[in-house]
Amino acid sequence: MVLEVRHLRVIDAIREKGSVSAAARHLHVTQPAVSHALKELEQRLGVELFRRDKQMEATFEGKHLLKTAARVLGELERVEDELDQFRQGNRGVIRIATQCYTSYNWLPPLLKRFGARYPDIRLEIVAEATSDPEGALLDHRLDLAIMTQRPTSAAVTTEPLFEDEFVAILPPGHPLAGRAYLQAEDFADQHLINHGPPDTTTVYRKVLGPAGVDPRSTSVIPLTEAIIQMVKAGIGISVMARWLVAPEIDKGELVAVRVTRKGLMRQWYIATLRQRADS
Q1: Could you give the angle at the alpha carbon of 49 between the alpha carbons of 47 and 52, nearest 5°?
Q2: Helix (H) or strand (E) holding 15
Q3: If we measure between CA atoms, which residue out of 13, 52, 95 comes closest to residue 271?
Q4: Residue 229 has what pLDDT?
Q5: How far apart are CA 256 and CA 68, in angstroms?
Q6: Using alpha carbons only, how large is the chain's radius of gyration in Å?
Q7: Residue 223 C-beta-side C-alpha neighbours within 13 Å
Q8: Each residue of 74-112: pLDDT tens digit?
Q9: Within 10 Å of residue 56's Cβ, how many Cβ atoms?
Q10: What is the pLDDT of residue 275?
């Protein structure tokens, strides 16, 4: 059998709305029409896609098909949007995301300059793709990602953009604040505050892990502003990009110390789907 777009739209609407009647209202068709389309699809495939309870819950087979439906419908929506932009005289849309939540504070002025130079191109920030930009590229929910790690899929290609430096941030007067640089062993008796789980952070992957050093204790705080305030209060220390805390360093509210003699550098990349790299 050949799957039709109308079938994918029906099961996606049922998943989103939770019932056949709600899906029908969402699609602006009758309830029998949705029921018939679902029954027809299940008969063609020979599997049950939803359990008929109070809430329509996708079966294992249904969840598998819904993943494909999301990708196909997302790509169709993207193409329709692009064609609509062409029809209106615009020249397209670029959907972007970065792999670091805190990167968005430098995007607005960049977008403003880009908009002045390319007024016919609309840029969309897809913030929900921040946690997995590679997956969003592969699912065609992004056109461009700014990443700090090379992608694992051969379908994604990258170009290096720039490096930034990670530094330890400490409150003034901290015993380590006067050091020229910190080594892995200096973290052993410290409370380290991270943006994410230890194994996902740059300082663990590049410095602490290889040296077999664990801090005395750790906290995971996903908000940069909260980490800065906790370090100021003397609750712990952290490691983050120098540019993130430049204002606090300039005002003397925090002290930045290099991590290792050579410094802890992070490479940024621009990533696109290989098949669309020349777009």
Answers
A1: 115
A2: helix 5-17
A3: 95
A4: 94
A5: 47
A6: 25
A7: 4
A8: 888 888 877 776 666 456 778 888 877 565 566 778 888
A9: 20
A10: 77
Q: What are phi and psi of 221, to 5 degrees?
A: -125, 110
- Name residue 58's amino acid: A
Q: CA-CA distance, 74 to 71, in Å (whole number)? A: 5
Separation of alpha carbons 159 and 139, rounded Å: 20
Structure tokens at 196: 């994410």
Distance CA 180, CA 221 (A): 27
- Of 227, 221, 237, residue with least CA distance to 186: 237
pLDDT beneath 50, residues of the chain = 89
Position 73: which residue type? L
Q: What are phi and psi of 15, to 5 degrees?
A: -60, -45
Distance, CA of 38 to chain centre? 33
pTM: 0.58
User: What pLDDT shows up at residue 203?
Assistant: 93
Q: Say what the pLDDT of residue 162 is.
A: 87
Task: Match 């193409």 to its residue by tokens.
Answer: 79
The helix (H) or strand (E) run that includes residue 8 is helix 5-17
Mean pLDDT value across the chain: 87
In three-state secondary structure terms, 248 is helix
Q: In sequence order, what are the residues at sequence separation of 6 or more whose Cβ sits closer than 8 angstroms to the Cβ of residue 105?
A: none
What's the gap between Cα 182 and its chain centre?
Answer: 30
Question: What is the token pair recorded at 168?
Answer: 């330890």
Please state, in angstroms and rounded to a whole number, the distance separating the CA atoms of residues 123 and 108.
11
Side chain identity at 145, as an amino acid letter?
A: A
The whole-number pLDDT of residue 195 equals: 85
